[in-house]
Amino acid sequence: SSLIFQPELDFPAPRRALRPLASPPPPVRAMTAAVPVPPLTGASELRAKAGAHGEAAVGTLAAPQDEGTHETRNMLMLGCIFTVYFAFRSGALVVIPLCSKELLKDTVHSDFSPLYNLPLGVWFGMDVLLATPNAYLMRKHGRALGFTIGGVAAFVGSLMAFAALRFSETPVVTFVLLNVAVMVMSDVGMAEFVRFAASEACADPARRGKVVSRVIGFG
What are the DSSP calls for 160-185, one per residue? Predict the structure, then answer.
Protein backbone atom coordinates (compact mmCIF):
# COMPACT_ATOMS: atom_id res chain seq x y z
CA SER A 1 0.00 0.00 0.00
CA SER A 2 2.91 2.32 0.59
CA LEU A 3 3.77 2.01 -3.06
CA ILE A 4 0.30 3.09 -4.22
CA PHE A 5 -0.54 6.02 -1.99
CA GLN A 6 1.95 8.84 -1.94
CA PRO A 7 2.14 11.18 1.04
CA GLU A 8 0.80 14.75 0.57
CA LEU A 9 3.42 17.32 -0.30
CA ASP A 10 3.74 20.41 1.87
CA PHE A 11 4.21 23.54 -0.36
CA PRO A 12 5.91 26.46 1.34
CA ALA A 13 3.81 29.54 1.95
CA PRO A 14 4.36 32.50 -0.43
CA ARG A 15 6.82 35.06 0.80
CA ARG A 16 4.49 38.01 0.02
CA ALA A 17 0.85 38.40 -0.78
CA LEU A 18 -0.24 39.09 -4.34
CA ARG A 19 -1.05 42.73 -5.19
CA PRO A 20 -4.77 43.30 -5.52
CA LEU A 21 -6.13 44.22 -8.92
CA ALA A 22 -6.47 47.88 -9.74
CA SER A 23 -9.91 49.39 -9.44
CA PRO A 24 -11.79 49.58 -12.75
CA PRO A 25 -11.87 53.00 -14.49
CA PRO A 26 -14.91 55.10 -13.81
CA PRO A 27 -17.64 54.88 -16.41
CA VAL A 28 -17.73 57.42 -19.17
CA ARG A 29 -21.03 58.73 -17.95
CA ALA A 30 -19.55 59.70 -14.62
CA MET A 31 -16.67 61.55 -16.32
CA THR A 32 -18.85 63.50 -18.68
CA ALA A 33 -21.31 64.37 -15.97
CA ALA A 34 -18.71 66.55 -14.27
CA VAL A 35 -18.26 68.75 -17.40
CA PRO A 36 -20.84 71.58 -17.45
CA VAL A 37 -22.97 71.60 -20.57
CA PRO A 38 -24.43 74.96 -21.64
CA PRO A 39 -28.18 75.01 -21.97
CA LEU A 40 -29.64 74.79 -25.45
CA THR A 41 -30.69 78.02 -27.06
CA GLY A 42 -34.30 78.45 -27.96
CA ALA A 43 -35.43 78.37 -31.56
CA SER A 44 -36.56 81.98 -31.48
CA GLU A 45 -33.12 83.17 -30.32
CA LEU A 46 -31.43 81.06 -32.99
CA ARG A 47 -33.60 82.63 -35.65
CA ALA A 48 -32.80 86.11 -34.32
CA LYS A 49 -29.07 85.39 -34.48
CA ALA A 50 -29.40 83.97 -37.96
CA GLY A 51 -31.27 87.06 -39.07
CA ALA A 52 -28.59 89.33 -37.63
CA HIS A 53 -25.61 87.46 -39.03
CA GLY A 54 -27.09 85.48 -41.88
CA GLU A 55 -26.50 88.07 -44.57
CA ALA A 56 -22.88 88.59 -43.58
CA ALA A 57 -22.24 84.86 -43.46
CA VAL A 58 -23.89 84.24 -46.80
CA GLY A 59 -21.98 87.15 -48.36
CA THR A 60 -18.71 85.83 -46.97
CA LEU A 61 -19.33 82.35 -48.32
CA ALA A 62 -20.58 83.52 -51.70
CA ALA A 63 -17.88 86.15 -52.21
CA PRO A 64 -15.14 83.77 -53.39
CA GLN A 65 -17.50 82.24 -55.94
CA ASP A 66 -18.97 85.45 -57.33
CA GLU A 67 -15.92 87.70 -56.96
CA GLY A 68 -14.37 86.72 -60.26
CA THR A 69 -17.65 87.02 -62.17
CA HIS A 70 -18.46 90.48 -60.80
CA GLU A 71 -14.94 91.72 -61.36
CA THR A 72 -14.92 90.54 -64.99
CA ARG A 73 -18.28 92.14 -65.66
CA ASN A 74 -17.21 95.44 -64.10
CA MET A 75 -13.98 95.49 -66.09
CA LEU A 76 -15.82 94.84 -69.35
CA MET A 77 -18.28 97.65 -68.64
CA LEU A 78 -15.50 100.06 -67.73
CA GLY A 79 -13.59 99.09 -70.87
CA CYS A 80 -16.68 99.78 -73.00
CA ILE A 81 -17.17 103.17 -71.33
CA PHE A 82 -13.59 104.18 -72.01
CA THR A 83 -13.80 102.90 -75.61
CA VAL A 84 -16.90 105.00 -76.37
CA TYR A 85 -15.35 108.02 -74.68
CA PHE A 86 -12.09 107.70 -76.58
CA ALA A 87 -13.89 107.29 -79.91
CA PHE A 88 -16.19 110.25 -79.20
CA ARG A 89 -13.36 112.56 -78.18
CA SER A 90 -11.11 111.53 -81.07
CA GLY A 91 -13.88 112.21 -83.55
CA ALA A 92 -14.59 115.59 -81.97
CA LEU A 93 -10.91 116.56 -82.19
CA VAL A 94 -11.06 116.04 -85.94
CA VAL A 95 -14.54 117.26 -86.83
CA ILE A 96 -14.93 120.40 -84.69
CA PRO A 97 -11.92 122.33 -86.12
CA LEU A 98 -13.10 121.51 -89.66
CA CYS A 99 -16.60 122.79 -88.87
CA SER A 100 -15.15 125.94 -87.33
CA LYS A 101 -13.02 126.56 -90.39
CA GLU A 102 -16.02 126.09 -92.67
CA LEU A 103 -18.08 128.52 -90.62
CA LEU A 104 -15.45 131.26 -90.31
CA LYS A 105 -13.59 131.05 -93.61
CA ASP A 106 -15.53 134.00 -95.08
CA THR A 107 -15.02 136.05 -91.93
CA VAL A 108 -11.38 135.32 -91.09
CA HIS A 109 -10.12 134.92 -94.68
CA SER A 110 -7.33 132.62 -93.63
CA ASP A 111 -6.61 128.95 -93.95
CA PHE A 112 -4.98 128.83 -90.52
CA SER A 113 -6.45 130.72 -87.57
CA PRO A 114 -6.50 130.15 -83.81
CA LEU A 115 -10.25 130.64 -83.89
CA TYR A 116 -10.67 127.31 -85.65
CA ASN A 117 -9.36 125.57 -82.54
CA LEU A 118 -11.28 127.74 -80.08
CA PRO A 119 -13.92 125.02 -79.40
CA LEU A 120 -11.15 122.58 -78.50
CA GLY A 121 -9.65 125.16 -76.13
CA VAL A 122 -13.08 125.58 -74.55
CA TRP A 123 -13.30 121.82 -74.18
CA PHE A 124 -9.94 121.50 -72.45
CA GLY A 125 -10.71 124.47 -70.21
CA MET A 126 -13.99 122.85 -69.16
CA ASP A 127 -12.11 119.64 -68.42
CA VAL A 128 -10.00 121.53 -65.89
CA LEU A 129 -12.97 123.34 -64.36
CA LEU A 130 -15.15 120.24 -64.07
CA ALA A 131 -12.50 117.89 -62.69
CA THR A 132 -13.04 118.80 -59.04
CA PRO A 133 -16.88 118.90 -59.14
CA ASN A 134 -16.96 115.60 -61.00
CA ALA A 135 -14.64 113.99 -58.45
CA TYR A 136 -16.79 115.28 -55.59
CA LEU A 137 -19.96 114.03 -57.29
CA MET A 138 -18.54 110.55 -57.78
CA ARG A 139 -17.21 110.42 -54.25
CA LYS A 140 -20.59 111.30 -52.81
CA HIS A 141 -22.98 109.46 -55.15
CA GLY A 142 -20.84 106.74 -56.75
CA ARG A 143 -19.09 106.07 -60.04
CA ALA A 144 -22.16 104.78 -61.86
CA LEU A 145 -24.05 108.06 -61.52
CA GLY A 146 -21.03 110.06 -62.67
CA PHE A 147 -20.54 107.95 -65.79
CA THR A 148 -24.27 108.21 -66.55
CA ILE A 149 -24.22 112.00 -66.27
CA GLY A 150 -21.16 112.17 -68.52
CA GLY A 151 -22.85 110.03 -71.19
CA VAL A 152 -26.06 112.07 -71.06
CA ALA A 153 -24.09 115.32 -71.32
CA ALA A 154 -22.24 114.04 -74.38
CA PHE A 155 -25.52 113.01 -76.03
CA VAL A 156 -27.26 116.32 -75.30
CA GLY A 157 -24.23 118.33 -76.44
CA SER A 158 -24.09 116.38 -79.69
CA LEU A 159 -27.77 117.11 -80.35
CA MET A 160 -27.15 120.80 -79.66
CA ALA A 161 -24.21 120.88 -82.07
CA PHE A 162 -26.26 119.11 -84.74
CA ALA A 163 -29.16 121.55 -84.31
CA ALA A 164 -26.82 124.56 -84.51
CA LEU A 165 -25.09 123.32 -87.66
CA ARG A 166 -28.33 122.24 -89.31
CA PHE A 167 -30.76 125.03 -88.55
CA SER A 168 -28.67 128.15 -87.87
CA GLU A 169 -28.22 130.37 -90.92
CA THR A 170 -25.65 132.85 -89.59
CA PRO A 171 -22.10 131.42 -89.51
CA VAL A 172 -20.94 133.51 -86.55
CA VAL A 173 -24.03 132.62 -84.48
CA THR A 174 -23.56 128.98 -85.43
CA PHE A 175 -19.95 129.14 -84.27
CA VAL A 176 -21.01 130.59 -80.90
CA LEU A 177 -23.69 127.91 -80.48
CA LEU A 178 -21.12 125.27 -81.36
CA ASN A 179 -18.92 126.48 -78.52
CA VAL A 180 -21.89 126.31 -76.15
CA ALA A 181 -22.57 122.74 -77.28
CA VAL A 182 -18.92 121.88 -76.69
CA MET A 183 -19.18 123.22 -73.14
CA VAL A 184 -22.06 120.83 -72.50
CA MET A 185 -20.51 117.78 -74.12
CA SER A 186 -17.19 118.33 -72.31
CA ASP A 187 -18.69 116.74 -69.22
CA VAL A 188 -18.01 113.42 -70.95
CA GLY A 189 -14.58 113.83 -69.39
CA MET A 190 -16.02 111.93 -66.40
CA ALA A 191 -14.91 108.85 -68.29
CA GLU A 192 -11.34 109.72 -67.32
CA PHE A 193 -12.20 108.36 -63.87
CA VAL A 194 -12.46 104.89 -65.34
CA ARG A 195 -8.95 104.05 -64.13
CA PHE A 196 -9.89 104.81 -60.53
CA ALA A 197 -13.10 102.80 -60.82
CA ALA A 198 -11.13 99.85 -62.18
CA SER A 199 -8.68 100.06 -59.28
CA GLU A 200 -11.54 100.11 -56.78
CA ALA A 201 -13.34 97.19 -58.47
CA CYS A 202 -10.29 94.93 -58.22
CA ALA A 203 -10.31 92.96 -54.96
CA ASP A 204 -6.65 91.90 -55.14
CA PRO A 205 -4.26 94.82 -54.53
CA ALA A 206 -1.44 92.94 -56.27
CA ARG A 207 -3.37 92.89 -59.58
CA ARG A 208 -4.72 96.44 -59.61
CA GLY A 209 -2.01 97.83 -61.86
CA LYS A 210 -2.53 95.07 -64.40
CA VAL A 211 -6.32 95.47 -64.30
CA VAL A 212 -6.15 99.23 -64.82
CA SER A 213 -3.77 98.82 -67.78
CA ARG A 214 -6.12 96.27 -69.34
CA VAL A 215 -9.12 98.57 -69.01
CA ILE A 216 -7.24 101.51 -70.54
CA GLY A 217 -5.77 99.30 -73.24
CA PHE A 218 -9.24 97.96 -74.01
CA GLY A 219 -10.27 101.49 -74.90
Answer: HHHHHHHH---HHHHHHHHHHHHHHH
Residues 171, 103: contact at Cβ < 8 Å? yes
- Full 3-state SS string of 113-124: CHHHHHHHHHHH
Q: Give pTM, 2 decimals.
A: 0.63
Instruction: Determine contact, residues 186/127, Cβ cutoff 8 Å.
Output: yes
31-58: b (≥16 Cβ within 10 Å) or e: eeeeeeeeeeeeeeeeeeeeeeeeeeee
Answer yes or no: are the C-beta atoms of 215 and 82 closer than 8 Å.
yes
Cβ neighbours for 184, distance < 8 A, ≥ 6 positions apart: 153, 156, 157, 160
The average pLDDT across 148-163 equals 94
Residues contacting 157, CB < 8 A, separation 6+: 181, 182, 183, 184, 185, 186, 187, 188
pLDDT tens-digit readout, 48-76: 544 544 444 334 334 455 666 777 888 88
